[in-house]
Specification:
Layout lengths: L9 E7 L13 E10 L5 E11 L7 E8 L2 E2 L11 E11 L4 E10 L8 E5 L6 E2 L4 E4 L9 E2 L7 E5 L10 E14 L3 E11 L8 E8 L9 E3 L4 E12 L4 E10 L9 E2 L6 E6 L4
Parallel strand pairs: 1-10
Antiparallel strand pairs: 1-2, 2-7, 3-6, 3-8, 3-9, 4-5, 4-7, 8-11, 12-13, 13-18, 14-17, 14-19, 14-20, 15-16, 15-18
């Protein structure tokens, strides 16, 4: 009888530079590298992590952290950059089906005290930099360069987050208040909030929480409505972008239909500073 051997999964990885101009100290989610994955048609491939290397005439301490985005959705925790420039970006749930493709953007958060004129770029240097479980990895030659980000200009304003206590427990039912947030701005510029990624630090997942929206304290809708969580998180887009003046604060409430059992817990928070995407509004006084 002829023995049939299962084909080993394989993954092709290539990277491309992301056009970046000068970035201000305190800038978040600055694109530094775009990474493309393509699985062969033999089997699904799970990508666990990427070992990045920072290069350029600047200090690793100027980078507050790097992480991976799938579109606007963060798919990794923020990774610290070590003194030697190494940063391990651990991907949460990146699985490519047979013949599947995926593109991730690696972004960097620039420290508020980053030195002006510092230059930073990130690269994948060899196939072993990609942990794809038992899959064979091919890193395409000639695609290792990353665009250099140069630090320049005034410091960016910072969006601060506080979590006032809920006035009543979260219960099963429709249109429940499941979190309260107080967003403020520290710095010289006003900002417009574009998106916010909220992560549940409790045990509720996916459709345990539905029809999620961020409202003002008076009940005015500030964002679009998300049908349900994506795993443990939800991405909400401000419609229209929300203006917050410097040294101003806005109290908001997160409302949703709660379908989780009593054993499931709900505690939403902004897990990383870059999970709030805001753009400065300069010259408005």
């Amino acid at each position: 009888m002829e023995t049939v051997h299962a084909a080993m999964p394989a993954l092709t990885v290539s990277s491309a530079p992301v056009p970046v101009t000068a970035v201000a100290p305190g800038s978040q989610r600055v694109p530094v590298l775009r990474v493309m994955f393509r699985a062969t048609c033999d089997a699904a491939v799970t990508v666990r992590s990427l070992n990045l290397l920072r290069r350029g005439q600047g200090s690793a301490a100027d980078i507050a952290g790097v992480h991976a985005l799938d579109g606007w959705q963060r798919v990794s925790r923020v990774a610290s950059v070590q003194r030697d420039g190494a940063a391990i970006v651990r991907l949460g749930r990146l699985t490519l089906e047979p013949c599947g493709q995926k593109t991730l953007t690696i972004v960097a958060d620039i420290g508020a005290s980053a030195a002006r004129a510092g230059e930073h770029r990130f690269v994948l240097t060899q196939a072993s930099d990609i942990d794809a479980a038992d899959a064979t990895v091919l890193l395409v030659p000639g695609s290792l360069a990353s665009q250099t980000a140069r630090v320049a200009g005034p410091e960016r304003s910072v969006v601060t987050v506080a979590y006032p206590q809920l006035t009543e427990p979260v219960r099963y039912g429709e249109h429940r208040t499941i979190a309260r947030l107080r967003l403020g701005v520290e710095g010289e510029d006003d900002v417009r909030l574009q998106t916010i990624l909220l992560t549940n630090d409790g045990s509720a997942r996916d459709d345990d929480v539905q029809n999620i929206v961020l409202e003002s304290s008076s009940g005015q809708r500030l964002t679009g409505t998300a049908a349900q969580m994506d795993g443990e998180s939800v991405l909400l887009t401000f419609q229209p972008p929300l203006l917050i003046g410097r040294n101003e604060e806005r109290l908001m409430k997160l409302t949703a239909d709660v379908r989780a059992s009593k054993r499931r817990t709900i505690r939403f928070l902004v897990e990383e500073p870059g999970d709030i995407v805001a753009v400065p509004v300069r010259g408005r006084r």
